[in-house]
Design goal:
Length: 239
Amino acid sequence: YLIPDFQNPTGRVMPQAQRQRLLTAARATGTWLVVDETVADIALDVPTPPPFGSLATGGGGEQVVTVGSLSKGHWSGLRVGWVRAGTRLITELTTLRVTADMSGSVLDQLVAGRLLEREEEILRRRLPILREQRDRLAELLGRTFPEWRWQLPPGGLSLWVDLGRPVASALAQAALRHGVRIEGGSRFGADPGTFEHRLRFPYTQPAERAEEAVRRIATGLSEGLAGGEVAPGRPHWVA
């Protein structure tokens, strides 16, 4: 399972040479690759990378399964996605789906069809907003937490912040007590405690909401990272 384009949570892009080595190794070993391209269109500072499957020439294309979605580039509430794969696998997946449900939401599919027709226009309007929100969040964090470090991602939807010490889970709990839900790095690791010094901070919120979230996180940090209850009735800001 790969996220080669603006990987979640780091925002990194897999180099072309590494993609080719992976395809060669997969072909040699009979390994299937599931390539997640749900954020591939969120290219903020670099051109959109070519589809991973376009490199699978000369055999091996049947082993590359690509998945995508409208939930990242358009609207998170639109849970319409797709699978690109060989004819045999698509036929098997279609047959299996018939036994699981009759169909997806017809309204959502109609909306998705209209959005796909206007995809270039929508991204042309959306990407500058995300770029501005990313830069504003980086400015806020740099001013409020000068000891934190990150690399500004060329695309994607989040900053992968190095806190300098393994307190991400405790900080996430402190933030939640102040109404901000944010993910510590251990959620993205294979083993418990991995990436405890990291925090994923999305920049999908408007600047004023991000500013309020940063302020609340700073308040929680200043009060200490001991456990406690979430304040009742406090609004939750998803950072």
